[in-house]
Amino acid sequence: MSRVTRWLKPATTVHAHCDVPCGIYDPHQAELAARTVARMVELIGQLPKDAPSEADRAKFVRCIAIKEQHAEIVKHEIQVIWSDYFKPEHLERYPDLHDRTWKILKLASKNKQTIDAAAAAELEAAVKEFADIFWSTKK
Question: How far apart are alpha carbons 98 and 100 in whole angstroms?
Fold first, then answer.
């Protein structure tokens, strides 16, 4: 081994089980994003259906964009916690966790595709349940 190779080789090997240290994960962003999706659907529902003004059309476009951005935030935040935080012992305690997570991701996609108050409420409730499971594992 040359001097350069020895110099570049780490003195010790480090192993990590996730991207960031445990304890940093928090489902709050997903909960806030799900609530934002529901609020945007609510605001869209309040807009006039007949002869909307230019301001109403602009508000509609902004609400759609925000709704879709926040549905994507839900997906990202849930996926990170699911893939990086949860461990086999959590799945033993919550055997339906994979299915719950999959359903949240599908609900977030549905909320990107539609303007549906029931779907938005369902997303909010599912994310809340996911957060409750997360916090129960921190005890």
Answer: 5
Whether 10 is covered by a domain: the verdict is no
Number of continuous H segments (helices) and E segments (strands) in the chain: 6, 0
pTM above 0.85, yes or no: no
Q: Is the dihedral of CA 83, 114, 58, 46 positive or negative?
A: negative
Domain range holding 129? 25-137
Q: Measured between alpha carbons, how far is 41 from 117 in angstroms, rounded to an integer?
A: 6
- pLDDT tens-digit readout, 65-93: 999 999 999 999 999 999 999 999 999 99
- Tell me how far apart the alpha carbons of residues 70 and 118 are, in angstroms, rounded to a whole number: 17
Residue 6 lies in a domain: no
